[in-house]
Known about the structure:
The protein is mainly beta.
Amino acid sequence: MTRRPALALLAALALLAGCDKDKDVDPPAELVDLKQVLPVQRLWSTGVGGGGEELRLALGLAEHDGALFAAARDGKVQALDPGNGRNRWQVDLKVDLSAGPGAGEGLVAVGSPAGILFALDAATGQQRWKVQAGGEILAPPLVAAERVVVRLVDGRMRAFATADGKEVWMAEDQVPRLSLRGTSAPAQAGDAVIAGFDSGKVMAVGLASGDLLWQAQVSSARGRTELERLADVDAAVRVAGDDVFAVGYQGRVVMLARESGQIWWGRDLSSYRGLAIDDDQIYVATSEGDVVALRRRDGSILWQQQGLRRRSTGTPAVVGSAVVVGDFDGYLHWLDRSDGRFVARQRPGRDRIAAAPLVVGNRVYVIDEGGQIAAFQSGDAAGR
């Protein structure tokens, strides 16, 4: 069993805080006045606890069975009506939380820095079970096919039965001496689960059994220093039909075959935040804060928006004709999918938006690191 040294975590935090170091040399891009051409309407806003900013955590949102779920650093988990933001239930787990929520099969799953995995009833918030997963949890659990799957910071991925929390299988990969603070969220791909690892690999294992199906090297360690050799795949992979898309830090964005892991193409690009996809394009928030659009079939770059450089751009999401992404100052930006120009901007709160906005239809739900949640509607429906 591989354990990640505390030094690695601290150094990685320093690296991710590199934005602050960069500010001394080259400040974040200033936002220019914007003539909003895409109608965007704020529908409601509310809050759920807070306290995530201290560790730059990206506690996000999940949707399941007509409800919206949120979790906060201070241990609160909440179910909301997505139409009006009203509280359906709220529980206080009385522990710090660092991951989640993940939702599915009637469960809501969240994880803690101390490695505790909680499973709550999605309808009532009642605790179904909790287990000690054995390591810090920093990415939303996957709840699917009678499994709750979590990635731990020590290189392990563990699956627990949705019924009672008993461990079903474990897979693991070697952890480098130094790595970024974060882990890739497990993603379902049919009867497999796929995730990125700190070694620069993407691995697919059987969702039922945990058997290794394939692994592919997305990023490779290069350079002489430990920092130069960082190659984590911390961003969640995206699965679309028979294709899998992944991106690594100081590495590349790749398209892989879902069944075999064969890499169809790769493009040098660095990201620890993640990517979004539509039928034709991939949208990546780079380590520098740019948003880049690539053609899905061959990885060629279509456009690059540098107006958010060094603004700690969060994970992007696709909504209608736009890509929406948050930044360190609490702004939410809509970019035209065809050319990357800014078409709308909103500011739900004052805290960093790191987690990917949740898109349901033409609605965008977002949570910032202070626990502020807001819902927006974009496109023609926003003007009604």
